[in-house]
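Subject: sequence -> structure tokens, single chain

Hey, anyone have a minute? Need the predicted structure for the following. Not urgent.
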Amino acid sequence: MYKVTATLNTNGNGYWSSTKAAVEITALQLAYTNDELDFGELRVFFNTNTWDTYKDGLIYTDKLFLQELRAYLQTIGFSEAEAMDVSYSEQGMQTDNYVSLDVGATFIAGLERLDPAHVHAVHAECADI
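Reply:
Had a minute. Here:
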């Protein structure tokens, strides 16, 4: 898990929320990879003092949040192609303290370039799933 300090915004046009807000991002975590390293789950943790899913709804499907996340990923070393290989996962994967996103082979290769030990540890942990 990577501790981060960033602010991403929602525009209130998602299917699960009409709230426009600045959301403090606190951590990024590659939580899962498949055996082929061409699919995984990225969790983007947020400060629940800046986003409360019980009153604000789910960030899920908010286009501005995803756009700003992709731009943020590029500021920390991901290429544009790697950052664009991030999209929302399904609604049932969302929680009250992180946004769940699907990542593909391009993103995973970028993370492996930036932090190979992290990718290998997650891949080894998920090998039996």
